[in-house]
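Technical note accompanying the year-one report. For the benefit of new consortium partners, we illustrate the data format agreed upon in the data management plan: each record pairs a sequence with a structure-token string. No post-processing was applied to the example shown here.
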Amino acid sequence: MTIPDSTFVYDALVQKNFFPAQKREMEELPPVFSTEALQGSIRTFLEGEPLRRAGYDQLIYKATRFNNVPRYMAVPHPLPYIQLAKCISDNWDELKFTASNDESRIKPQEHSDGRLIIMDYETAINKVRRVSKTSFGKKFIVRTDISNCFPSIYSHSIPWALVGMPTAKNTMSDRDIWYNKLDRHQRMMKRNETVGVPIGPATSNVIVEAILGKIDEALVQEGFVFAREGSFSRFIDDYTAYCNSHEDARRFLSFLGDRLEQYKLVINAKKTEFSEQPTPLNPLWLSELSTRLSGSHTFAQIDAIRYLDFALTLMASNPDGSVLKYVAKSLLAKAKIGRPLLSYLLNLSFYHPILLPLFYTRLPNTALLRPFKDELLMILGENARNKRSDGMVWAIYYLKTLGFEIPSDLASMIRNTEDCFAITLLYLSSPDHEKLVVDFANWLLDQKDIYLADRYWLLLYQLFFDSKIPNPYEDETLYADINFRQSRSETQQQARDREVKIFNELKTNGISFVL
């Protein structure tokens, strides 16, 4: 593992981990959205611009989980995000302990593709080695997680964790001290609110690792370490501890709960469980499937379809496991790819949109989907009805890549979802939908709500970049509330000019967030 330096951290946060891209194969979004261009002089310009006094709002992206419950991810406005990333980079010496925390399974690292955070599980062999050593001789295991972790992070707890509560409280009024700057820049990304960090950008992972890393240190100091690697581990906000007795397991849980409470976080009681050792390293469904799918031979299509049938059967008794996705990923790597298998997988994708990115990440060529235009359109319509961001953008991406037009009635359905990413991709898919999207953008601006404009900054900026609409922040009625101004001495015109300048400079420098 390579501990990154501050330059790598800054570049990674801005250019690689701005949009949701934390899965190993970057399954969150199609490869259309990018912040690679945010470097050099434009980044320097954004670092130095004054922030809106009341903060900014952020885009929402609904990623569908294996049980079809949405996970709300966010993409901040670029101005406050870059300033937060710069603050983290400038103070990396105070934060780099997050990259060397032995108890954390997911931490900032210098990944070969330039990313700082990749939220992926360790290999099966590495897990066996780690767990075998840390659990050896321990008789009990306790598993728990933090209830609603990222949305519950209290921004003032960042200084509490980094320098201790007494010091933090005694210096709260010092806006220029580094840990208070970190707190303030975090708040600026969402309306200056003190509760919640967005799921998606890697800045949030650094913040969470800083807070939970201090809790990990307290657990180690309390004695919950009996081997070199430690007797407990944490995967983001999921804790697993191996203990000598049931009493020790309860003591671990009690101590963890007390420390979390100090930072206004709580244990998730519904996901807390005690078990007597030995316990399996993996759930039964994973052992069954991996055994059946092991080996280097290629599966015939009919065998692959039978494995998918088996996965559907297992899903009924394992609703909390991503059974179907595991099998689909394995089969796309091992099976002979033909129309029957693709047809079945697309059929399953209609019900489980979590499978849709696999046609990009696992197929040798998305042109293999060409015979399935009608199926892709049906998938798009189903996800538009359910307002699933990921299901819509992946379906639109495949249709656009294959050169298929999206019918006007389906385009209207997408517009009515009011989903920023889907509508942006609809606009990019064909000139035929330009008027529909521009009319939607004008409707947004007619609401005279600066936060609403922020929640669609990606769409509005792209339309402005393409000269389809004027700079969306030009309307002076957006600045009627004095809280939007930088200071009480600032005029409404000055507040407007400050906001307008950001998009103007981005456009002048040729910055686009889509490829």
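Partners are asked to follow this layout when depositing records. The longest helix spans residues 202-221.
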